[in-house]
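Ticket #4471: complex job returned nothing on first submit. Input attached below:
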Amino acid sequence: MSRRPEIRDHQRELYYFRIRLAVAASIALVLFFVLLARAFWLQVLQYEHYHTLAEENRISIVPIVPNRGLILDRNGAVLAHNYSAYTLEITPSKVEGGLDKTIDALAELIEITPRDRKRFRKLLEESKNFETLPIRTRLNDVEIARFAANRYRFPGVDIHARLFRHYPQGEITSHVVGYIGRINDADLKRLEEMELLPNYRGSDYIGKAGLEQSYEQALHGTTGFERVETDAAGRAVRTLSRTPPISGNNLTLHLDLKLQQVAEQAFGSFRGALIALDPRTGGVLAFLSKPGYDTNLFIDGIDPMNWQALNDSPDKPLINRAMHGMYPPGSTFKPFMALAALELKKRSPSYTIADPGYFSLPGSSHRYRDWKPGGHGMVNLHKSIVVSCDTYYYGLAVDMGIDAIHDFMAHFGFGRKTGIDIEGERAGLLPSQEWKWKRFKQKWFVGDTVSVGIGQGYMLATPLQLAVAVATLANGGREMRPHLVREIQNAKTGAVTPVKPELISELPVNPENLERVKAAMVDVTRPGGTAARAGAGAPYTMAGKTGTAQVIGMKQGEKYVESRVAERHRDHALFIAFAPAEDPRIAVAVLVENGGHGGSTAAPIARAVFDYYLLGKRPAGAAATEEGAQENGDD
Amino acid sequence: MIRRWLARSARHVDGVLLALVGAVLLLGLGILYSASGQDTARVVNQMLNILLALAIMWAVANVPPQHLMRFALPTYLVGLLLLVAVALFGEVSKGARRWLDLGITRIQPSELMKIGVPLMLAWYLDKHEKGLRLRDFVVAAVILALPVALIAKQPDLGTALLISASGFYVLFLAGIGWRVILGLAVAGAAMLPVVWSLLHDYQRQRVLTLLDPSQDPLGAGYHIIQSTIALGSGGLLGKGWLHGTQAHLDFLPERHTDFIFAVLGEEFGLMGILVLVALYFAILARGLLIAGNAPSLFGRLMAGSITLTFGTYAVVNMGMVSGILPVVGVPLPLVSYGGTAMVTLLMGFGILMSVATHRRLVKT
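Support reply: We reran it on our side without changes. The output follows.
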C-alpha cells in the first residue's frame, strides 16, 4: 500500500471500489449458486433417498397381535381358547421416580404379590427398556376402578385389555394340547432362521409343548399392522392406516374329550398312558398320560414353587408317558410274533409244543421260565396267544432269529418314531445284531433273542408305538400315521382343510394269517383268555392281548410276589386291543404303571373306552382299583 | 404537520429495498407460522419485533451518514466495555457467557458490535481518507481484533467470525491490498492448527460432525442429519405449507430459529428455496448498488459492509442447514424468529437507506 500514491482521484477511487464490489458480488453469486446446487442435489437428485428417510422417521409400524386359534375336540369341546382380561402394565422407560417406588405405591391400591414382583423382575431383565410389561394380570372391576382414580400418580403405568390363553380341561389334555409361553431368546433365534420373525412382532407368546408347539404356525395367525405417525420422541400422533391381523386357524382334533375323560376316570389312582386310535385313519381318539399337570400354570412363566413341585413329584407329571415313556412291550408283543411266524412260515397253525413251564437252549441248563409254573400243557399258536404262553415264543424267537424279528416288527412301527403331530416322541428300541454291535460293541447272543420273543430283553416301545402296532394289525397291515388334528379351520374364511390320513407302510400279509391272529386275540377276552374278565358281556367282539413289563429284574429261581414288592417296583400292566374285531373302529394301547397284570388293571380301562366309544355307555364309576388287580389269569 | 413530517421522512426510505425486505419478511412470517406449529402468539410476537425493527430502520434512514458517523466511537467503546463486563460478570447459559443482566433486561453486547464494528472501522478509515497507509490498516485490524477476541472467548465462535467478516469487508472495500489479503489467508491457514487447539471440544465436534454427520447421529450430527432429510424430502415443490413432517413431528431441532430454512425447504421444496435465494440476491444487489453510488467513503464502506455481512449471514445459515458448513448459531436473516437479530438487521438496512437517500441531499 505504501507504494500507492495518495488517493486523490475520486473517480479512480470509486473505480477501484466498484471493482471490489464486483468481486464481492461475484463471490456472493458463486456462493448462492453453490447453495442452490446443494439444494438441487438434495431435493431433486437425492429426493427418493431422503423421502424414504423422512417416511421412516415419522412412520412407525405398530404390530397388532392376532388372536390365537382355538383347539377343539372332535365334537367342538374347547381344549384351548382365549379370554380377554385386564392387566396392569408398566413401561419402565416412562416411569418417574424409580420403578420400585412405583410398584410399592401400586401395591397399596392393587394386590401385587411377591410372586408378581418376581415375575416382573424376570421379564424386566429379558426385555428392552421401552417395552410394556405386565405386573398383575386378571384385574377385577374394583381394582380397575381404584387404579383409574389414581392414574395421574402413575406415569408409565396403564391398564390394558389383553387376550389370555386358557386350557379349560387342565390336566386331562395337558400332554396333548401343551401350552404356550413367553418367547425366549432360543425361540427368537429359531424364528429368525425360519424367517418368521416379522410375523411375531408384538407377540409375547409361542407354543412350547404339545399341539400348541407343533401347530404353532397354524395357530398363531398373521400379525396386523398399524402405520402410526410418530414424533421424534416416538409418541404416536395419529394412525395413517391399519392392516388388521388375521386370526390363527382353529384346530379340530380327532380326539374325543369325553372318551378321554372316560379313560382318565378308568385309570383311577393309577399312573400310566392310554392311546386310542382309529385304525382306518390313524386319528388319535384319546391320548392320555397320567398324571397330567395344569398347563395354565405355564402361560405367564411358571413360578419356581410350582415348577419345583411338578419337577420333583415322584409321579413325574411332566413326562409324556404316552410317547416319551419306553417300556418293554411284554406279552403284547406276542400277536406280532405269531403273525411273523405264520408269514415267515416258521410255524403252522397246527404246530404244537408240550410246554413244561420253561425253555432251555440246546446244550444249556439255563431255564427261561414261563409265567405259569408247570406250564400250559399242549400249546399251539392259537392257545399261545389266548393263555399267553411264554415257552412257545422262546422257541419261536430262536427259530426266527433276531434279524428276521427286527425286519418284520419294523413294519409295525417298532424301533422308530411314529410321526405323530406333536413333538418329543421317542423311537423305542427294536434290537438287532447290528444295533447291539454299534451300541455295546458286543456280539448278539441267542439268549438275547429268547427274551425278545416275549417282548422283554432289549425290546422297548412307547405306548404310542404299541397303539400304532395294534392299529396296524387291526387295519390289515396298513400302518397309518397317528395324528391328532382332524381338520384346520381358517379363522377368516371359515374354510375347513381336513388333514388327510397318511399311510406310512403297507405290509402285504396273508389275510388268512391275520384272521388267525385276530381270532386268537378275540379269545383272549373270552372265558379262558387272560382278559376274560374285562371282555365279559361285551356286546361287540373285542380283540386284545395282555402284557406285563418288568420293572425290577428277578433273580433266577426267585418268585415274584406282588405284595412283597414296593408299589413303585411292581410290574407295569399292558393291554393292547381293538374292536369290533370284524371291522375295527378303535384300537388302544393301555399302560398302567405298577399296575401288576395287564388282564386285571389295563384291560378294564380299554373296555371302558370301547364301551363309551362304540356304545356311548359311560362306565358306572368303574375305575380300576388295586383291589381288582389280583384276580383272573395272568401272563 | 405529522403527515408532512411522515411524507418527508418517507423520502429517506428506499422503496426497492423496502419491497424486497418486506417480501422476505412476509415469507418468513408464513414459514414461522408453520415452523412454530401454527403458534399464533409466536407469529404476533415476531410481527411486533418486525414493527419495532422497521421503526428503528425508518428512524436510522432519516439520520444522514455524517451524523451516523458521530455514533461510531461511542457505540464501539460502549460495546467494548459491555463485552469486558460480560467477560467479568456475564451470565452463564449453556456453558457460554454471552449475556449481561442489567436488572430490567438482559442484553447481548455482541449483537451491538455487529453494527458497532463496521461503523467504527468505516468512521476510522473515512477519517483517514486523505492518506490510508499501512499503519491505518494495522490500527483498523486492532479495532477489529479486540471485540472479536472478546466474543470468541465467550465462546461465540459464529458471531466472532461474522463480526470479523463484517470488519474485513470494510477493510477490503477500503482498498486493503490483495497481497495483504493473500498474506492474511496464508497466515490464517497456518494458524488453523493453533485455532484448532484453542477450540472447545464441542466446537471441534461440530467441525468433525460436518465432515461425517453419521459419526454421531444422536448427538452433534443429529441436527444436520435431520435438516438434510427435511430438505431432501421436500423435493422440487415441497410437501406443502404446514405439511412438513420433519418439522411438525419434532424431528427438526430449533426449527423456528436457526433451522427454519429446513422448514422452507421441506414445505416449499426447491422452488421455495429458489424464491428466497433470489430475494436475498436481489437485496444484496440493491445494497451493493447503493454502496457503489455512495458519495462518501464512509457511506460506501458502511453500505458495502452491511450488505456483504447480510449476504454472509444468509449463506452461512443456509450452508449450515443444508450440511455444507459447520453448525454455528447463525439465524436466517429476516426469517428466523428473534427480536435482536431483526433489529440489528433492519438497523443496518436503515443505514443503507440513509446512505442511499442522503446522496442527493449532500450534493445539493
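The radius of gyration of chain B is 21 Å. Closing as resolved unless it happens again.
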